Amino acid sequence: MRPRLMGILNVTPDSFYDGGRWEKTDAAVRRGLRMIEAGADVVDVGGQSTRPGSSPVPIREEIRRVVPVVRALRARCDVPVSIDTSRGEVARRALEAGADWINDVTGLRGDPEMASIAAEHGAHVVIMHMQGTPRTMQEDPSYDDVVDEVRDFLERRARRAIEAGVPADKMLVDPGIGFGKKLEHNRALLRNVGTLQASGYPLVIGHSRKSFLGEVLGREAPDRLAGTLAVSGYLMEAGVDVLRVHDVADHRDLRRTRDWLRRD
Ligand code: HH2
After folding, report:
1. How many CB atoms lie within 10 A of CB 66?
2. pLDDT for 159-182, tens place per residue?
């Protein structure tokens, strides 16, 4: 199966890797269009960093950052646009501006309205697992069995979304690499994507340049591309449906090379 590439577009001053690079609307739109040219199957626009230790920004500021970018991308391309938010009002405004997906790192727990907003607009929904909140999540995350607990959570939240009217075929799930997880938790989740896929929903993985790679390699985010690609290759073999990545062109090359190698 051909994994889809979700290009990360953070319209923020402080995201852990691309913060401050696409803060202005024009720069963000150019970046989004470049990612689409490079082969992104969906562009994920975020207006608030959720890196460990981060605090929420005012809702009006989040809307100011993302809505013009979503509108401009929608006017200039047909590729699905995703809004990375856990706030219903931000999602609503982005969907009205033309977004197609909601990517919610709280698994629809951040705002009780989120599931019905998604249902009303016919949006695809990515339900992600996180233990704790971004501000404190890396202080001492703990699990009895991380894979089982994450799978149960994702299935429970997906059922709730279906009850609120989101069609099952518009739902995707994501174990939330780095969100309230120690190195070994991330490793267990990456090695057990089959268990997570057993729920039947397409699986999204967002490992790109994250700090677990810093722990493995002793490198900062700008120097974690090779590590990211190694994990991506592994996940492609495992049949993951969507890879959420900063480096779309490199991943397209990875995917093409792998397809060439596997061809009969
Ligand atoms: N990771 C981040 C943000 N949103 N969404 C999903 N579905 N899965 C993820 O793993 C995920 C996500 C954090 O990464 P990034 O957007 O690059 O950084 P920041 O939160 O600092 O903006």
Report:
1. 30
2. 999 999 999 999 999 999 999 999
Q: What pLDDT shows up at residue 1?
A: 47
Both tokens assigned to 205: 């993985």
Long-range own/partner contacts, residues 75-81 (CB < 8 A, 24 or more apart): 76/29, 76/33, 77/33, 77/36, 79/36, 79/40, 79/41, 79/42, 79/43, 80/41, 80/42, 80/43, 80/124, 81/32, 81/42, 81/43, 81/45
Ligand 1 neighbour 126 (Cβ under 6 A): yes
Provide long-range contacts, Cβ within 8 A and 24+ apart, for 104-112. 104/128, 105/50, 105/130, 105/134, 105/176, 105/179, 106/130, 107/153, 107/154, 107/157, 108/157, 108/160, 108/161, 109/157, 110/86, 111/86, 111/87, 112/88
Q: List the end-to-end C-alpha distance of the chain, in Å, as a whole number.
A: 14
| Cβ 176 under 6 angstroms from ligand 1 | yes
Is 24 among the residues known to form the active site?
Answer: no
pTM tops 0.90, yes or no: yes
To the query of whether residue 181 is one of the catalytic residues in this protein, the response is no
